[in-house]
Amino acid sequence: MLQAYEKGFFIFTLVSAFLLMFVTLACPPAPAVTTPAEEEATPEEVISTETTVTIEGFAFNPREVKIKAGGTVIWQQKDSAPHTVTSDDGKFDSGSLNQGENWSFTFEKPGIYEYHCRPHPWMKAKVIVE
Q1: Domain spans, the chain
Q2: Using an 8 Å Cβ cutoff, are 60 and 86 in contact?
Q3: CB of 75 within 8 A of CB of 100?
Q4: In the predicted structure, residue 96 carries a pLDDT above the cut 50
Q5: How far apart are CA 42 and CA 75, in angstroms?
Q6: pLDDT digit string, tens, across residues 80-95
Q7: Residue 18, class by beta-carbon neighbours within 10 Å (0-12 exposed, 13-18 middle, 19+ buried)?
Q8: Are residues 119 and 82 in contact, defined by beta-carbon separation less than 8 angstroms?
Q9: What is the 8-class DSSP label of residue 122?
Q10: What is the rounded CA–CA span in Å between residue 108 and residue 76?
């Protein structure tokens, strides 16, 4: 009687192991989950006279925009935490922007304007003016 029990347990364990292996190999892996801040933003391809940058998820999106000289960038603040749009060289500063507020700046001269958020210095982006 003990041997029949051991044989049944062995068969049950063996079948369970094969089923587990089959299910593991048959199922595709789950897709990676990223937050908006982790996604790589790409520069806008069309060079325009006005463009919008969204502040959301503790990131500027897109991180790089191109505009024509004399063009305007509008920043839309969608985060619950306050942020700034502050140029690295001191040429512009939005001051503190709360959720739902917008701020714009007109870039008169060609160049590369890098900027950041003062309270969150890891938030960085740039405007390319042609």
Answers
A1: 48-129
A2: no
A3: no
A4: yes
A5: 17
A6: 999 999 999 999 999 9
A7: exposed
A8: yes
A9: T
A10: 21
Any idea which architecture 48-129 has in CATH?
Sandwich (2.60)
Q: Side-chain half-sphere of 59: how many Cα atoms within 13 Å? A: 12
> Is the sign of the CA dihedral 126, 61, 78, 105 positive or negative?
positive
> What's the distance, CA 37 to chain centroid?
2
As a whole number of angstroms, the distance between CA 9 and CA 46 comes to: 68
77: amino acid identity, one letter? Q
The bridge status of strand 102-107 relative to strand 48-55 is unpaired
pLDDT band, residue 109 (cuts 50/70/90)? very high
Going by C-alpha positions, the residue among 119, 123, 113, 125 that lies closest to residue 98 is: 119
Quick: pLDDT tens for 18-62.
555 555 555 555 455 444 544 454 554 557 789 999 999 999 999
DSSP state of 39: S
Task: State the Cα–Cα distance between residues 52 and 75, nearest whole angstrom.
Answer: 6
